[in-house]
UniProtKB/TrEMBL annotation:
Annotated source species: Salinarimonas soli
SUPFAM superfamilies reported in the protein's UniProt record: ACP-like
Start and end residues of each Carrier domain: 6-71
Transmembrane spans: none
Domain of life from the UniProt record: Bacteria
InterPro entries with a match to the protein in the record: ACP-like_sf, PP-bd_ACP
Protein name per Swiss-Prot or TrEMBL: Acyl carrier protein
Amino acid sequence: MTTDETVHEVFRTVFNDDDIVLSDDYSAADRSDWDSIAHLNLMFALEQSLGVTFSGNEFMSLSNVGELRQLLRAKLGSPTYA
């Protein structure tokens, strides 16, 4: 499974929504149930699924999926996000 597929799966699991399609500009504004608790659940699930750790500042400063992808590229050392 690629990193992007894992991220999609985490979003689908956290929000209990198999129809989520992520784009770089996808954000909390796109979901009424994306609150601070869901944001923390995303952080913990991504850490567990991808074997990365986020500082609170890193994760709380993200405003959309594109920024999350950039952060994951930096943490995983993957220029192509494969």
